[in-house]
Design brief:
The protein is of the alpha+beta class. It contains 7 helices and 17 strands. Keywords: Carbohydrate metabolism, Galactose metabolism, Metal-binding, Nucleotidyltransferase, Transferase, Zinc.
Length: 391
């Protein structure tokens, strides 16, 4: 098998980045741990792959102003395959997976993306594609029956070559490598033409809808500002650009703090929607993960691992969750939108889930099942039962 040495770049904490391409032209990037046992050589992807699907089309909902991407190619994605056919494991003779070589952390373009892959430009001034968006004014324009090409990028972030696990099962060193990959991809994706917002996230557990048990997350790069962030920008106009600073001070003086470090604070928010909801904020203003410094990333790795392991300690079985890294848009609100994690779970008891019924799903009017202070006390006890996480 042909295994050439890939070009490399050393990032923070000694993480080494090695970019290459898959057989159909999709980008694949290896991120090697600082103490990796892997060499510079990586196998070539020699699969005979079908052409990449056409870029999805998105339609504007005139009642809300939201854009809905219609990505029919996603119907063919893998669903709970056995370990021997894990599409995120390193390739073997019997398993022609997405990643040719063994790895520490690997990031690649999704084969069935909700956005993209059309981001090439003829003159560098606008993304290519049939009727691609032409900036935020075009995205926000009114009118019935409006469609645009859903340009952007969707990437898969593999946390480990193991078949099962999640971010919380990683070592501190591996968690630090993933954080470095998130920051590096945030910077790269934010620079792509047509991208307005970058969103790293992890879905964990079948109750959330996970279709692969392999420890992984995703990064979506949108051609618009997402509805959640657009609403946040409106709130900042009302509440003031210092809103996140005031929220952090308010929560740090409350009984809802779960764990706090020199650079990060985790708490159950004052108006939590979900039975289990935690926000994790940097103590200084940063717009996205790319703006965090080495000290912040180094502290984040063990602190975030301890938080996740505490959440799992609440019950006898692992807790399903969505870990959503909210970042400022690429071109708006950079001085006021503070990057933060919102971790939510529908689990309201050991054997009970919260389902979004009429009021929440149809009207967006939430009813909390558990007082935030009660949830915070339980979470704090669970996190304190977890030993300090060290490298």
């Amino acid at each position: 098998m042909n295994t050439p040495a890939l070009p490399s770049e050393t990032l923070g904490a000694g993480v080494v980045k090695r970019p290459t391409l898959l057989a159909d032209g999709r980008e694949l990037i290896y991120y090697d741990d600082p103490d990796t046992r892997l060499g510079a050589e990586r196998a070539i992807d020699a699969r005979d792959l079908d052409p990449r699907p056409a870029t999805a089309t998105m339609r504007r909902d005139v009642l809300t102003g939201d854009w809905i991407s219609v990505a029919a190619s996603r119907q063919n994605r893998a669903f709970m395959p056995p370990a021997e056919f894990d599409p995120l494991a390193p390739q073997t003779a019997a398993n022609p997976s997405e990643i040719p070589s063994t790895y520490d952390v690997a990031v690649f373009e999704n084969k069935s993306p909700s956005f993209g892959p059309a981001l090439a430009t003829a003159h560098g001034d606008a993304p290519a594609g049939d009727d691609a968006p032409r900036g935020l004014d075009d995205v926000d324009a009114p009118g019935l029956g409006r469609t645009r090409t859903a340009v952007g990028r969707c990437e898969v972030v593999c946390f480990s070559p193991e078949h099962e696990g999640s971010f919380g099962t990683l070592s501190v060193t591996r968690a630090r490598t993933v954080i470095e990959a998130w920051a590096d991809r945030t910077a790269a994706l934010s620079a792509l033409p047509g991208v307005q917002q970058v969103f790293p996230f992890e879905n964990r557990g079948e109750a959330i809808g996970v279709t692969l048990p392999h420890p992984h997350g995703q990064i979506y790069s949108y051609p618009y500002i997402t509805p959640r962030t657009a609403n946040l920008l409106r709130q900042l106009e009302t509440e003031g650009d210092d809103l996140f600073s005031r929220i952090l001070e308010f929560e740090q003086n409350s009984e809802r703090v779960i764990v706090a470090g020199e650079h990060w604070t985790a708490f159950v928010p004052f108006a939590a929607r979900w039975p289990l909801e935690v926000h994790l904020l940097p103590n200084r203003h940063v717009a996205d993960l790319a703006e965090t410094n080495d000290a912040e990333r180094t502290e984040l790795a063990p602190l975030y691992l301890r938080l996740l392991r505490g959440i799992d300690a609440l019950y006898d079985t692992p807790t399903p969750y969505i870990a959503a890294w909210h970042q400022a848009p690429v071109n708006r609100g950079r001085d006021s939108v503070r990057m933060h994690l919102q971790l939510t779970s529908p689990r309201r008891a050991a054997d009970k889930l919260k389902f979004l019924a009429g009021s929440e799903a149809a009207m967006g009017a939430w009813i909390g099942d558990i007082a935030p202070e009660t949830a915070a006390a339980k979470l704090r006890d669970a996190v304190e039962s977890i030993p300090e996480v060290h490298a």
